[in-house]
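Bumping with the actual sequence this time:
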Amino acid sequence: MKGKNLKEFIEALEMLEREKGIKKAQMVETIRAAIQAAYRKNNGEESEGIVEIDEESGDMRLYVEKTVVAIVEDTNTQIALEEAQSIRKSYKLGQIIKVEIDCGGFKRTAIQNAKQIIIQKVREVEKENTFNKLKESEDKLVNGMIRRIDDNNNAYIELNGVEVFLAASEQLPTDQLYVGDRVKVYVSNVQESTKFPKVLISRKNEGFLRKLFEQEIPEISEGFVEIKSIAREAGSRSKVAIYAADENIDLIGVCIGNRGVRIKNILDEIGDEKIDLIVYSSDVKEYVQNALNPAKVEHIDMLEEKMSRVYVPQEQFSLAIGKSGQNARLAARLTGIKIDIKIME
């Protein structure tokens, strides 16, 4: 393959690399396999062609190995001495040589088969590249553009050039999304599938809130402050347990920020949702007490490893339980401890 065809070949490979992110070296291997497959289809499955491609120049040649013989019995594997010596005079009987084959001599069906292999390979590489690109966003907070919204309020968001489905059930109750808006979403999981990567994104996931904290509070992203646990009822209320090995760090102050700017930025993103900042403690009783904030606890008994009985003053009982039991429920989820709240007699 030379001249005009060579130029077109090189340009096509370079265009695929620029536009699809498919490496030229990958496509060279694809072309090599396609030509070999086309040769086998044209000459029988037993036939094996040797394809040599110069990746720089694009020069392509197809060879088959043949044994030099006095009398040819199989044209696919043998070549007459006289014919071999017309290629190179030094060839001798019994020698295995490479004989160049004209690539353009294949039947139309064979060439079509090669074309289909190339197309399939391009699709496979595109799928792999798309998956890898999306996989890099897993467990991250990303910005996407809303491309469309269906009648059920499901949104279709463009992430890294790929349209991803944001179910209405994964949106905040206060979300008002419109086509063309940019929106933050948490990529919780990316899985390979038969046709297209399966991408799970959410604004209700606890990971969404965790990443907002990491984004707005440098001490968390840098590891000085750790988020131990999050219990969230998205759109309503969340409890976030925070911890620092350095006792001199003001945990609550770090999260709230100067004049409340840090926590405000987080709250602006999640609407009416309230956030309780809970100081984590390795002392289970103290941790449960902190988790029930803003209620004041009088006494805690640990009944079993994962069960506690909490006593509060009568005037604190409703606050400890919370509206529809929310405060106690979130505290239990945050700590991993069952909480039975009683009025202190």
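The tokens above came from a reply further down the thread. The chain has a mean pLDDT of 87.
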